[in-house]
Amino acid sequence: MPAVQETVERVRRIDVDQYRYGFETLIESDKAPKGLSEDTVRFISAKKNEPAWMLEWRLEAFRRWLTMTEPTWARVNYPKIDYQDIYYYAAPKPKKTLSSIDEIDPEILKTYEKLGIPLREVAILEGVEPPPGGEPSANRKIAVDAVFDSVSVATTFQKELKKAGVIFMPISEAIREHPELVQKYLGSVVPTSDNYFATLNSAVFSDGSFVYVPPGVRCPMELSTYFRINERNTGQFERTLIIADKGSYVSYLEGCTAPQRDENQLHAAVVELVALDDAEIKYSTVQNWYPGNSEGKGGIYNFVTKRGDCRGKNSKISWTQVETGSAITWKYPSCILRGDNSSGEFYSIAISNGYQQVDSGTKMIHLGKNTSSRIISKGIAAGKSQNTYRGLVSAHRKATGARNYTACDSLLIGDKCGAHTVPYVEAKNSSATFEHEATTSKISEDVLFYCIQRGLSQEEAVGLVVNGFVKDVLQQLPMEFAVEAQKLISISLEGSVG
Amino acid sequence: MTLRKNVMSLLEVKDLKVRVEEREILHGLSLTVNPGEVHAIMGPNGSGKSTLSHVIAGKPGYEVTDGQILFRGEDLLEMEPNERAAKGVFLAFQYPVEIPGVTTWNFLHAALNAQRKARGEDEISSPAFLKKVREVARSLNIPQDMLKRGVNVGFSGGEKKRNEILQMALFEPAVCILDEMDSGLDIDALRIAADGVNALRSPERAMVVITHYQRLLNYIVPDFVHVMSKGRVVKSGGKELALELEESGYAQFEDAA
Ligand SMILES: Nc1ncnc2c1ncn2[C@@H]1O[C@H](COP(=O)(O)OP(=O)(O)O)[C@@H](O)[C@H]1O
Ligand SMILES: [Mg+2]
After folding, report:
1. Which pLDDT tens digit goes with each residue over A355-371?
2. How many domains does chain B contain in total?
3. Residue B133: which CATH number?
């Protein structure tokens, strides 16, 4: 059989039922009544002991949401979502108030252990192989906030961070303990009226992480949040707010998984980043929500609004994402380059297999003078998936000297999938320099055979070629996560050929 | 002359018929290669030399309609191509491919470990591998810098061929098939590559050197020469056959085929 045909055969038999995180944790949970109304919003706000201003903020968002319609411009298809058939709040039933990690429900601890997320305060030493020629990682610490369904169940290394002046806590706690910071910044990047899903999130968000790094402080460790959806028919609406004050630096990573279920689940998060003068935020995501089974049944709808505001001069925000999960991804982490000389970066690896649909990209909005941005996007489509890069680069009339470089590369595995590139460019002043490069290629049979002749299996060969293809982006991830991401990429492409 | 003991041949191609897209390319080709021997296969473009090398290595897209290939008595055609590699079949490609983003030394490490694993041997650690690959590179006069670059990315013709020889030295195969190693090389590059190949000649290892020109055989001196034309071996002989060809050309064989 000619090689190409053989590959096609294999893709036809594709099986994405290899999701490693599809287990469910059996615990009792405390849920809001199904459906969405003002009462649901009040219920959530009351559960969180929120101050009145927060409830008002939510209600206003809810009223606005009622007047909005779901966006349809993305290249994704899904049956109509019944917003009344979703639980908007689910929390593991606490046995009592917790004062240490040892009091967390052992079932939940076990869940995170199975997922490989350290909730105990130990430096990460194991399972990390240094890259070729690299040094083994010395006692590196990573502080973790673990969000289970609608609530945060643990945040590690709080004391050590406090010593440095860094605030890292569940946003529900920050609303009570640091209302002045939350009131000042919440909704200042993604306003409650921004878009259908962001507005919904503003009304019903339950938890997420809050980070504040004070002026001149370099956050002493990586911060990370781990999101886990467990409950059935439950939406996850987390809210993350990160503020890097003048001259500070923070690197933050989020990871996500969910059990394997036949019905689709909605995840509509909002992430807001604010970088003041000379501050830098590095935000990395390894997204591995359940993608659905081989027939395209089940999986997470990932409708997320992520935006960073380079509010101060010389500030910098960089988004790095490795997207392998979700049935549908609708996500455009963006940068508003408001401060003069500020810069934004977007590094993305988006992999789709089976029946996954990805519509993702970024927006770089140049407002300040001499602002620069860089976009490196690597899309890999296999199986019957559709993978779209959608990006906007714009320069305001006053954004003199704006510069952008965009490189979008797509790799197709098999011929039942599709890759699409939709770039929008708007330059309102003549001094802007925008460069755009795009390529689409198929994984070549000759390259695969070369690798196989040297002893690699078909799957190892595909993994190697793909890892080479995404290398520029992988290099942007913190080392530990680069290794994780590399493994994840191989797993998500299993069965795509070979 | 001592009688050859009754040992199994290393590689035995028997009456091989191969089709590509419904067209027969090899029409019953036979070739027997024993350990320690160097065979040259010569023939004009399109005579089926690369096809033979691809079928031995297991490249998809070829249909074997008749005949056999035995490797140490085992049916090679039943094995997956990576299994053949692990057993010691190595093909130095006429046109080595580029693999962007994958460093040469990473690639070699992954490949060597895959072969070792298939043979039930322990994997070789990064430091031990690094030491080994550096030694081999040094012995072949290959600059260390090449190991850090993407596989064949931006390599000159000579560098690509040297990279093939480096792999040959590293994997220590039993049978090496070199497809048009001389194509695209100037005389100096050719000499360096040939020296590398000669250093790997040993009583246990066999080589099948495919070439269009006699020139290469001045540097890699074969024990046997086979002339291929239109999908068949039309004449076999000693190394002097290559010189004969040099003078008279392939035309005489076109008719014989
Ligand atoms: N993939 C292919 N599809 C169609 N014809 C092929 C293919 N590969 C080789 N051929 C044909 O087979 C014949 C032998 O080719 P090849 O083995 O490359 O010869 P050589 O290496 O001796 O130059 C040629 O006529 C060539 O056109
Ligand atoms: Mg050829």
Report:
1. 888 899 999 999 999 99
2. 1
3. 3.40.50.300
